[in-house]
Amino acid sequence: MDRAMRVGIEIDDGGLARVTLRRGEAGNAIDLDMARGLLDAARTCAAEAVRAVLLTGEGKSFCVGGDLREFSRLSGEALHQHLTTVTAALHDALRTFAASDAPVVAAVQGAIAGAGIGLAASADVTLAAADASFTAAYTGIGYSPDAGVSWFLPRLIGPKRALDLLLTNRRIPAAEAADIGLVSRVVAADRLAAEAARTAEALRRGPTAAFGATRRLVAAGLTADLGPHLDREARAIAAAAASDAGREGVAAFLGKRTPDFTRVALKP
User: Rounded to an integer, what distance in angstroms lies between the CA atom of residue 211 and that of residue 65?
Assistant: First the structure.
C-alpha cells in the first residue's frame, strides 16, 4: 500500500492540519509505509502555513506500536536493517513535529502500546478516551523502546514510574495515565473527537510563534541550569513582545477585545 494511504493529511484554510493514521484494521500498527507517511505528513506541516496539528488514529485503537507481522517476515541482518529504516523515518517525523512552532494535539483511544505511546507522549496536549489503555510492551517481546518512549516517559512521569511501565509492561487505564502525567486529560469516548477538534481549533487561533518559543523553552528547561535558562527566557519574551503577535495581544488586552492572532502571517 502507498504510504499516502497509510497516513492522511488535510490542511484547512485556517492552517489546522489533521494527520490521521489509517490502518484501523491493523490497530494502526506502524510498518515502513506508515513511518514514511508520518514523515511526509510532518514535512508537509513544516512546509505549509500550519498553525496547529491534530493527530488521530482510525478504528478502535490509536496505535498498537510496530507492525510485528511485518517484522516477523525478516531475520538477521535484513531485520536489523529494516528496523533501522523504520525507526529512522519515524524518529525524523518526531523531530520535525517537535521543531515546528505549531502545537500538536493527539486524540487517543483503545489500546495504545509501544511506539503508539511515543506518538501520544510527543504531543503537546494529549486527550485520551475513557476506554483507552497503555502498555509499553517492548520488553515483553524482547525489544527495547523506540519512538522517543525512553526520552518522553521519564520526563512526563519520572524515571521510577517509567521503568515500572517499561520493565513490567503493566497495562494502565486512561485515568491512571492522566494521574501520572502521561496524558493531559481524559474525556468520554463519544466526546473525544469533538473535544480534540475544539482544542486544536483553539490553538490554531493562538499566537503560533509564541507557542513555538514556549515549546522550546519547556523542552530546554528540563536539562538547563537556571541562570542560562533565565537568559533564554529573557531573549524569547523580548522577541515575542516586539513581534506582530505580541503587539496584537497587548492592544487587544488594553482595548478589552479578543486578540486575532490569525491576522499575523507565519514566518516560513
Answer: 29
Structural domain ending residue among the three candidates 159, 184, 204: 204
For 124-155, give the DSSP string.
SEEEEETT-EEE--TGGGT----TTHHHHHHH
- Shared-domain flag, residues 114 and 178: yes
Decide if 90 contacts 30 (C-beta within 8 A).
yes
In terms of Cα–Cα distance, which of 103, 117, 96, 143 is closest to 30? 117
Instruction: Confirm whether 187 is domain-assigned.
Output: yes
Domain of residue 213, CATH code: 1.10.12.10
Grid cell for residue 56? 488521530
Signed CA dihedral, 202, 61, 68, 142: sign only: positive
Task: Sheet containing 7-11: give its strands across.
Answer: 7-11, 16-21, 52-57, 104-108, 125-129, 185-187
Task: Calculate the average pLDDT of the chain.
Answer: 96
Q: Say yes or no: 66 and 194 in one domain.
A: yes
The CATH number for 175's domain is: 3.90.226.10
**Domain annotation covers residue 268:** no
Q: Cβ contacts of residue 70 below 8 Å, gap of 6+?
A: 29, 31, 32, 82
Q: Using one digit for the tens of pLDDT, what is the confidence trace for 228-264?
A: 999 999 999 999 999 999 999 999 999 999 999 998 8
- Secondary structure (3-state) at 33: helix
Q: 259 lies in which domain range?
A: 208-263
Write the CB contacts of 83 (distance below 8 Å, at least 6 apart in sequence): 71
**Tens-digit pLDDT profile for residues 167-214:** 999 999 999 999 999 999 999 999 999 999 999 999 999 999 999 999
Whether residues 73 and 200 share a domain: the answer is yes
257: which DSSP letter? S
> Which residue reads 493527530 in cell numbers?
55
What is the pTM assigned to this prediction?
Answer: 0.94
